[in-house]
Amino acid sequence: MKFxxxxxxxxxFDILNTSIIGKAIKNGQFDVQITNIRDFTKDKHKxxxxxPYGGGAGMxxxxxxxxxxxxxxxxxxxxxxxxxxPRGRTLNQKTVESLAKEQRILILCGDYEGIDQRAIDxxxxxxxxxxxxxxxxxxxxxxxxxxxxxxxIDGVLGSSESTSEESFSNGLLEYPQYTxxxxxxxxxxxxxxxxxxxxxIEAWRLEKSLEITQKNRPDLLKDADLKEYLPKKSxxxxx
Length: 239
Fold this sequence. Notes:
Shape: elongated
Structural class: alpha/beta
Strand order of the largest sheet: 2-1-6-5-7
Helix content: 25-40%
Number of strands: 9
Distance between the termini: 44 Å
Order of helices and strands: EHEEEHEHEHEHHEEH
Strand content: 15-25%
């Protein structure tokens, strides 16, 4: 998979050189190319924004540098083109898994008060948000998309269980995790995790996932297919 990121602040993406993601890029498991939109402006001062028509606070990014950059990076429109925007569709686990099936994703980062609508109309496939709040720019949301999607690329994580047994993968939030020492400041690892009975451990983890989801995100329960977790004898037969 390849990610193309268009931004006026390319230094934001230095963090991609670190940790698991940095190692995966170095090993060629996926590719990230950063393009500076300022390289495509005709303004001698490398300016990419202007005052908005109709008035209002702040500055708006002008369309030509954006559209020119996108056309240079993806001339044949081979990539899925995303614009990170608080008014876009909210990123969730299903969307992440869908994006992971793409061969190439182009991410446009807007800054200031946003971008000229004509750049969106001419060159963007979809607007996408990472939550119901506003940030100073699209760089952090772009990093969230790259990080979340990259985890589903073969070889990036050490084990496929890392994505199959985590929050949202089964419609529930993840159960608590423990490691050594067995007793830390009077808090002990639950006995069930020490007895080696995998059936009991699985049942305990499900119980805790349900408890945590009910407490923190009860809205998720309405979409979770809990029949998957019930013993077969307790499931109602259809027909």
